[in-house]
Design goal:
Rossmann fold; globular; 8-stranded mixed beta sheet; 213 residues; alpha/beta
């Protein structure tokens, strides 16, 4: 299941040229379809190798702006960063996999600071895939001034519990900000209750999909 592509079809009937924040953009697989439809995309990718492919995409799509910082709920000029020789998709601010090796340091910003600096007043689609740090990214969003139409992010307790939170914490934050939460996961026995709709899929990424209540 390709959640971003499915959302692209959803947005076609809703928004002509929207604004997307792609946090953990990897190599542009999620934002590419939106760029081809004329959207403005702000992509965050601190992994140098992944960012090279994003830069190739930016050469074709001038509405793609790339930021080389990681995103969290704090700001820093230099935070430890880790990548894996086994997978380009698990680079992170935390070393949760045995294959992770230190890869220098990266700057860290919040979406609140970034949107203020860029004068961004509307976000249609917020996609977050930061390998364990998604809740922190959401905490740093400027909820007091705007609300994305749809948010897509990832949970995996194996990554997040060492950081002090679980999937219920992320669901709670979203519900408190006025969203209904659709959970797509591998298993049916998740410790999630309340206003969360649980949908079962064979998708390995365990994404949350939020639609405003």
């Amino acid at each position: 299941m390709d959640e971003s592509n499915a959302l692209k079809h959803y947005f076609e009937a809703q928004v002509a040229e929207g604004v997307m924040l792609d946090v953990g953009a990897h190599r542009g697989g999620s934002c590419g379809p939106f760029l081809r439809s004329g959207w403005t995309v702000y992509a965050f990718e601190p992994d140098t190798e992944n960012r090279r492919q994003l830069e190739d995409l930016a050469a074709r799509y001038p509405k793609l702006a790339i930021d080389d910082r990681a995103v969290s709920d704090f700001e820093s000029g230099a935070a430890a960063f880790y990548r894996s020789p086994l997978s380009s998709g698990i680079s992170s601010l935390s070393a949760f996999d045995p294959s992770h090796v230190a890869n220098g340091s990266v700057g860290v910003t919040t979406l609140r600071s970034f949107c203020a600096a860029r004068g961004i007043e509307r976000v249609d689609f917020l996609k977050v895939d930061t390998e364990g740090h998604d809740l922190f990214v959401l905490r740093g969003f400027p909820w007091e001034s705007m609300q994305p139409s749809v948010i897509l992010c990832e949970f995996e307790d194996q990554k997040t519990e060492p950081l002090g939170y679980g999937c219920k914490d992320m669901g709670r934050l979203l519900i408190e900000n006025g969203y209904r939460v659709l959970v797509v996961c591998l298993v049916s026995s998740l410790p999630i209750h309340g206003n969360i709709v649980l949908s079962i899929s064979a998708d390995i990424k365990h994404p949350f999909l939020r639609v405003p209540a």
